[in-house]
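HUMAN: Forgive my ignorance: could you write out one protein's sequence and backbone structure tokens?

ASSISTANT:
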Amino acid sequence: MEEQYVRIQKMNDLREKGIEPFPSYSVQGRTTCYDARMLFDGLSQNEEIVTLVGRIRSKRIHGGSAFLDLHDATERMQLFFSKGIVGDEPFEDLKERIDLGDFIEVKGTLFHTQKGEKTLSVQSMRFLAKALLPLPEKWHGLSDVEIRYRQRYLDLLANTAVRDIFAKRATIIQTIRAFFESHGFIEVDTPMLQPIPGGATARPFITHHNALDTDLYLRVAPELYLKRLIVGGYERVFEIARCFRNEGIDHTHNPEFTQVEAYMAYADYVDLMALTEELITSLVQSIHQSDRFMYQEKEIACSTPFARISFKKALEEYGSVDIDEYPTFETLSQWAKEKGMTVESTGGRGRLLDDMFKKYVTPHLLNPTFIVDYPIELSPLAKKKADNPQYTERFQLVIAHTERVNAFTELNDPVDQRQRFEEQQKHRAAGDEEAQRVDEDFLTALEHGMPPTAGLGMGIDRLVALLTDSHSLKEVIFFPTLRPKLDETAE
């Protein structure tokens, strides 16, 4: 707090001298630090006046001269100040009243120092904004995880690798958008506030709309609305959607997350496997310029075709269990208990199958692997397999032991869909808060006819974490959900 007090005094001193430390000012004709460095020789030879703006990150005073490091969003540029050039009073302001973190505008010419450093010789300077708090650890890096996530702006300032992660995130989203558009999909928006949450097995957040005097839910998935658009005549739609699920927080889960969902009429889940392979390989190539990359000290090979194995056979291979021999929750739970698993009373056979898969199968899946043909209890929105109605035309793509893509041939039989919803409703009545609800409006849409359709969903945060070698989603979400910080002044 003492340093903040000193900086406030400097701010007041500037104002007393008639210098506004927070001017309303539009910078005209600026050159970025990167462009100045790239065009350095040509600009220097012509002695053109260059205008730079940015934040001061270091200051070294040597008698009547000073060297500063100026950073903008692109690069760093060294500044040289001479009392003989800028004048006594501006140099005194620089020496006594400018702090690390302040924003300034400078004009001058480019030259090489004796050590060959590209430098701007400043002829004039203007204040743009005063920093009243010091920057973290004098720019040697910010490592305190608590501060990094709660004050992301400091993390971005101190750690260039963090800015690189979010630049790659932007590239990934741009690549996803361009990919679907190039394949004839139209980007759409669907409601984030919904009267009935649906499209995923998840516990929703609830809110209340005062004017309508009705409860609404933050969407857990855009799926049911996107399929309404397929009913309405669109054949290929996608949405990059912010979704919300009232669930626990760990390195692969954040209550607020971003995913892309896409739906394609006149297609099935086999078509989507080919599309997914193409999408994933293009994303890997865009970030790593190769089909191989490192994640948590392990090499991931994304060469096609990806491996494929059914849900049933995967549990046979890795869990030594034939789930068809345990067709009820009671028989399957008995097997699980004998293996030392904790069995929840809510969620039924589907929840238990999912727990078994995560325990026995995913730890073995490093390279991209399609897990296909999920049990019907796990897939309330997927079409049954024609040759075995206990399973559905669904796949998940697992990479590095985590599900990255979920897709299936969509259920377009409204009678079957109603029965699935009603079965989910029974689980809700038994205490499963994640089970889906009966959505009458969606059923009405299906009753008007939906063509054969395949749909996929992919979590963008998890994908970014994978492609940037980040263990936790907190590293790839600008402002992750955190436990409220305790007020140390409260009694």
Notes: The domain at 157-306+367-475 is CATH 3.30.930.10 (BirA Bifunctional Protein; domain 2). Residues 63 and 293 are 51 Å apart (CA to CA). The chain has a mean pLDDT of 92.
